[in-house]
Amino acid sequence: MKGRSKSPFPAVLVLAVAVAVALLLLAGCDAGTDEPYQGSSQGDETTGPSGVVGGKITVASNIAYPPFEFSPKGRPKGFDIDLMNEIAKRAGFEVKYENVEFDSILRGLDADLFDASISAMTITTEREKQIDFSDPYFNADQALLVESDSKIKSVDDLSDATVGVQAGSAGQLKGEDLHDGGQVGEVKPYRTIGEAFADLRAGKVEGVIYALSAAHKKVSENDGEIRYVEPIPTGDQYGIAFPKDSLLVEPVNDALAEVKADGTYEELYEKWIGMPPEEIP
């Protein structure tokens, strides 16, 4: 019986080729769902485990939520991106952004796939059991918008009014809270926020409760037909997220405090939100 024929290549060479191919395949793996985006610092990769200060860090974000993060011309922009770049510059590290689905961020941080995440993420007690947060960087309030000729001057004028909200949104939750407290007459949910504003212009609702961060843009889109009235505090705040016990939390908080104190935060807020902040968190 004939034995197996011998390869013309030495066994060591075959093994070396196999290892090289495996390394190439691993190098092509991406933790996110899309191609990674580079931040202004042009970081290419992390330089060590989560928490390493003074090197390059990977920051996860769902880059599809303007004005906080979006990608015109294939590069990330927005309030969150500018803020994180400013923090990185002051804290002395470089950033590479990974564009990922929002619901994969917590799992990625927990598994140390990312060093941090900035993605308009609300700080909650439940999330704090799994990850760490920076100090709050944004008050995620709602806003009251009405027709330009409306006599409504504040939320206090809504006790007999109907307000439109997007179904399932934070605006609906806040509207229902106001209704339960007797401050709003009726809350009417819509499948899309566009439908709510269409009914506002048609006079079918007296107001719309909408995210404060997008209110200025909505006013400008409607050519003076819609007026911003006032913010509606929710108590919700956004934070930068990290794996548990990350060494990045302290330097990020220090840099964030500087950004808030020297006027840079207000500049970024007006640039992306379109109005001065009512209060800096």
Summarize the entry for a quick read.
It contains nine helices and 13 strands. The chain is α/β, with parallel strands linked by helices. The strands form four sheets. It has a five-stranded mixed β-sheet with strand order 9-8-10-7-11, with helices on both faces.
Overall description:
It is a single chain. Helices cover 33% and strands 19% of the residues. It is built from nine helices and 13 strands. It has helices spanning 11-27, 79-91, 105-110, 125-128, 170-180, 193-201, 212-221, 249-261, 264-273, and strands at residues 37-38, 56-61, 94-99, 116-117, 132-133, 138-139, 142-147, 162-166, 186-190, 207-211, 226-232, 237-238, 241-242. It has a five-stranded mixed β-sheet, sandwiched between helices. Strands 1-3-2-4 form a four-stranded mixed β-sheet. The protein has a two-stranded antiparallel ribbon with strand order 5-13.
Strand order in space, largest sheet: 9-8-10-7-11
Structural classification:
alpha/beta
Measured between the Cα atoms of the first and last residue, the distance is 81 Å
Q: Low-confidence segments, ≥5 residues, pLDDT <50?
A: 1-51
Report the helical percentage: 25-40%
Mean pLDDT comes to: 84
Assign an overall shape.
elongated
Task: State the helix count.
Answer: 9
- How many beta-strand elements? 13
**Rg:** 24 Å
β content, as a range?
Answer: 15-25%
Main beta sheet strand tally, sense and closure: 5 strands, mixed
Order of helices and strands: HEEHEHEHEEEEHEHEHEEEHH
